[in-house]
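User: I'm curious whether this sequence folds into something compact or stays loose and floppy. Could you predict its structure so I can see for myself?
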Amino acid sequence: MGAEDVRRQILQHPVTGTMTENINPETKERRNFVPKRIKIFDTVYTRLSDQVQYRFAANKEAGKLLPDIINNPVQKVTKHTDISGATQKQYHKKRSLGVVFSGGPAPGGHNVIAGLFDELKACNKDSRLFGFVLGSDGLLESRYVEITQQMVDAHRNMGGFSMIKTGRTKIDTRQKMDQALKTCKSLGLEGLVVIGGDDSNTNAAFLAQHFSSAGIRVIGVPKTIDGDIQVASDDGTKLLAISFGFHSAARAFSQNISNLASDAASDVKYWHVCKVMGRVASHLTLEAALQTHANLAFIGEELAEYVDTERLKKAGEKGEIDYTAYGITLRHLSRIICDAIVRRAAFGKNYGVMIIPEGILESINEIQIFIIKLNKIIADYNTIHDLDFHRSFPTLNEKLDYLRRISKGMLDRNGFPIWNLRDDELFNQLPEFFQEGLLKERDLHGNFQFSQVRTEKIIMDMVTDYLGVLKEQGVYKVGIEQSYYRSFMASRDMDPDRYAPALFTDPAAPFLLVKPKIISLKTLKQALVSAELLVPENEIPGPVTEIFRRSEPGFKIQTHFFGYDGRGGDPTAFDCHYTYNLGLTAYHLIANGATGQMAAIKNLEQEFENWEAMGIPIARLMHLEERKGRLELVMEKSMVDLSSNAFQVYKACREKWLAADAGEDHFRKPGPVRCKGRTEEDRPITLVLNAIS
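Assistant: Here's the prediction. I'll summarize afterward.
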């Protein structure tokens, strides 16, 4: 039999066919998983009950721009007691609805569509659901597909937004609004569901206002892996604990970080620096820290609130106020990291795992000032000259030259230069790649694109430089285990007790630290000669040299960015249940006449039996925020609450998890992401902790 015949036979073998299928057994099992339904959705007929006890302070600007939806109340989906013929007819009528993904993917988006589709068809099998292709572009260009049973079944419980794709185009002008309305009218839509983050839900509110006269309802669905869509009423009642996709992404990141922790503890020579998504809020970093017990994690919100009490005290003694004591600097942050690294190394742990949020630099005092100033300069240039700053000055040198030219001419409202000579001096001290990063083109929402800047490099370069200084000072050393030192010396026929007093600061300690003054072979020899353990003409004994070499720290890092892998992953069981019920909620809001509401599930932090389907007025969640140098009405982001249970638990545990002692590390395995099976992790850890009374 020839090689070609053998190859053909192998390719035709049934095992080969099974092993090379696109769909593996786990995917089939995942697709067949049936999410639970909140009990209210087993009711034949529903209605919306106004929850007037939940209030929000209205923004005046929101009232002006969104008059038709600003007075929406919080609404709860409840059982309809009127089952008259009119109710039944309204409930079972044929409907056409539209759905659109907006912004980056998040695990669970397909289940929102599945819940919407299933409920739509259950009420009337002739109803139709249209998906707009490539996000808002599909709405503007009338590109859509009719969503079928086959499409939905192929994407149930699966990650990504691949069913109808997504996009980032904003519908932010009257012309675009009119075009979107025209598309929806042409399909005879009764309602449109916008699945997206804070900006997309802001867009949904403006669409709801624009579509109100045409009778087309618009409902938003809270999506973002960053976890920065959270809603509480004015009295502090949590109506929406987290956006969908957060738990799945955090678990995906945590699993990878946990693997790196295993690697670090095995190879004992690398610090793994893990940057995770979270441009403004650090929810993902906090959750990942709780999931993995990483040695170091930095919460941007805490750094932003930092106050140097020592500096304030010194200034107070002089009768002064040191305003530079408020807010952490890059230099100070690098020193905190160095201190942790040195402390671990003293116990032989010259390795570890560190988590930093993507937007950590926005929490750094001097960097935040640069970002604000540069945003203003770029926005003003675009407005005054009606040109694009980045096209006018394509290279870094051209941008820097422009900044220097305006250092005296561009003034703020108080008559001070926006970009002064001091700014220029500080900016020039930054590495070129970071200058370029700060001057990068902003995203569609006017935000600085931290994901495109090697945040970790600027920080770790400073750390590496300072560790070099500490090494020269004899402060940064690797501790040598007492038992290892003794057995090693004895195996070389040398008396460990004879050399220990000359070599180590505390010869009786469990981990031995070479004296600070011994920083080279030359100083080692001097110490041995001084202790009369060596005559100047002789060479240092080989075993002693080996012990010294083992005490010398070599700082090595591996950097990792976790973002796109997590947002495209498959959803956890929590997100499967959550998103399916968001789809059901969106349908019932539209069917009961709601518009300008965001579908939400209350009591996510509790057992599933306590979940409640809600509609929250988007207009009431808005505030004015600077975007591209001007104020715009947007949904407010939710930051990590430093008084929350979750943060306080992390704060209490982080010294233990740093493990700068003779004990073992405390790394935790978060376990695999799956949609079947129940564990104690069926909800985000932050939610569980925050639910503790």
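Summary: The chain has a mean pLDDT of 91. The chain has five domains: 1-30, 33-82+93-244+571-627, 250-358+468-478+554-570+658-693, 363-453, 479-551.
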